[in-house]
## 1
Amino acid sequence: MVRLVYTGAMPSPKTSPSVPDAVPDAVLADHLEFREVRVRRAFEAVCDQIRQQLLAGDLRPGDRLPGEREMAEQFNVSRGVVRESIRSLESMGVVEARTGVAGGVFIRGSTPKGMTQAMSDMVSLGQMPIGVVTETRIEMTCMAIRLACARATEAELDAIEQDVEAIAERFRRGDAPRSGRALGEFYRLIACATHNELIVMLIDSLSEVMRNLLARIDPQPHPDMIVMRRKVLRHMRARDAQQACAAMTVHLQHVTDYLESQNRSKAGAVRQG
């Protein structure tokens, strides 16, 4: 088991040497502006150590952290500080708490949860316009398409086709999927075909934010989506990134325009009410 030892700076009881009021023959830098020095909170130091051990490879996805009491002893902090650290790490998607006999706090695998939450919060608070999210999604998706056209295996392209046809079959049965997660698998498969883990995380994160935005207006899936997806895939099989990106951009821009118009209508209705 990895031993976690608190190494955060603690306030020293010793009095620091006094700073002389003036230094002969020195020019005073009176243009400088200093900020108040604040003592670092213990839970932040605990979080930093756990992240550092992840970066160093001492902790890996799936590893179980010591229990709350043991961590408090190793870090020489209270159990409340340990709980606050775990909550912070969990909100960032670094760890996950599992219940049951084999439960505990475990290191998560690669996840965009923290990034998704940060973007969702910024959009909800009005700190990030919806247009910024949709523009970024279009650019990131086109980047993924370009890389996938160069790197995707035939098996990966077959997987994308299977997903497209599975959704098409549901439309034919009159059972069009309303779940954003089911509809978003298409984008995830394209991202996976880039063989770039960071792009997969970014696409997943942007897709989740878009799902949350669309859930507010609860749109009805349109069968034209299948036409677009088949067109994109056809160009990808031909390794024609430019045409595939063009088809995807037109579709995502339509989604963007619809989302923004619905949000404007909703905002107008609220003002009138």
## 2
Amino acid sequence: MEKSIFIKKINRYFHDIEANYFDFRHSVRIREESHLYRGFFQHFFRENQPDNVRILEVGTGTGLVPRVLTSFHYSPQYLCIDLSFSMLNAVRNCPDLCNKGFLRYSVCDSEQLSFKSERFDLVICNAALHHFPNAESFFEEAHRVLTPGGILIIGHEPNKRFWTNRAVSFAYRTLHKINKLFSRDAQISKTEKGDYSKVCNGVNEILLNKGLITEPLPHETILGHVDIHSPNSGSKIDYSKGFAIQEIKERFSKGYSIEQIRYHYSQGSPNGAGILWRLFRLYNRIVFPASAPSFSLILRKG
């Protein structure tokens, strides 16, 4: 079996299991990403008629972006795709979305989109690119299905420039650990929120039952395959992973123009780190403005 196919299977099984408590695990990130898309939709629908817009979201997860969209009371054609059937089921069963007739769903591979060319006006990939084994294939497929002048959003991806600036990343991770000790999330046990042992055990069970492995994979290997492009997916930082803006310009974004780059210092409210956190963020934005932990891109098809 090709490695990329095996990685996709692990991703599917992992997210099928995690779907029931994904929002709980990622509650802080969801709040922050919701703010990003509210701002985007406010601007986007001033320039486009909502009912005529065709949107494809690749890697929908549990439906963060559709939930934001419903707050505007628009009804564009919106297709949610994901490798995980359980994730899409979570969207279908979400109280805010279950009666929205403009939403459609399909289990689909992000690197082999089963749609006609030039079908969508907007393609959204929020916090999912780092799961795709072949990111370049996704960019090519998104370009194919976008109409001329269509928009591609890449939301919240790990910034390689941040991780390779080791002094900055070390300071940030230290302050983040302090914050976690004092934040309200500290009251949630590791077993409930931060420990993926049950999920990894479930993935191993499925792989063994399907005869895809002969012995259980180490949990670190599973997590490394799930977040295949994430520098901090394992016990040690892998500085070769993540995405660099320049790399995206040169390798992935042929046929696109970059309209906007946004850098994010997301990780929640710095209750514990306090003034040190705020000073760090201010210093980093002035001295290393492109070295935030994550970034988002808005690209336009040429």
## 3
Amino acid sequence: MMFSCILQAEKLGKLTYPDLFLSFQLIERFFVSLKEVFIVHGAWTIFWREMVKYKRRMMTLFVTIVQPVLWILLFGVALGSTIPEKEGSISYVNFLIPGIIGLSILFSSLFASFNVLLDKEFGLTKEILMSPTSRNQAMVGYSLSGLAKSLIQAFAVLLLGVFLIVSGSEKLVLFGEGEGFFDTFIWFLTFVLIIVIFSFGFLFMAMAIAARMTSHGALQALTTMLTLPLFFASEALYPSREFPFWLAIIAKINPLTYCVRVLQISLLGYDFRYGDNPPFHYEFADIVTGFIMVGLFTLIMFYLAIKSFQKIKLF
């Protein structure tokens, strides 16, 4: 309507420079309002606060990076030395990298719930919710900070894996050995996108849990009870085709299985094998299935997180 008035005034020859200046001011105000709608200031503030805390607590940053390193060294190097290698196969370390990346994201995302519970206990959540920041914005802010930490861990694991592979004089298999820059870039985007969706899924789960919890002990017990079964009942350490029937069923509904599978394809390609184990053969449909399953899980957790934050109980 505003633009039509300007055009009509221009046709009638009644548009003066002050009127034009005022019209551009109205246009500018419109876009500023639009920006305020789509840029969530409260979520960004909470995100920035959490990242400053993360940077200042050097021990937390150290543990965040060292934990996946220990998993690679203990499982990849130690256990991998017992697996015989054959010509044309990759090392167990190479096979393990996607699984450890998935594990790091899982742990980092679920343990983000402790930050929410601490803020509830010390009254910071009450102050946040008394401000113009909405509950949904607070949830998004906490989740974005958790996503940033997950990406830091994922790339730390990837860099360590590359170092171990190169130092072991093994051929580096990375992002499907794309024939050109475009192929490598597509695999890299696939790698990052599945990490983002998967991390958000468990971050939303962590937010939903923390919003209803009042005890650190109960939260820690519940988090540990969730992480270990999810990790071991997936393809992070070994292929699920070797599982007994009941465990294979659990693996098929486990979102970590699909995340690790997409990570394996994006890093190692559609066809690979490690040691003297049977080869893996994947197709494009496996990538689509992985994104669908992880995406559905994330949407469900997002809905539960919103409902839980609307009923959050403050100390």
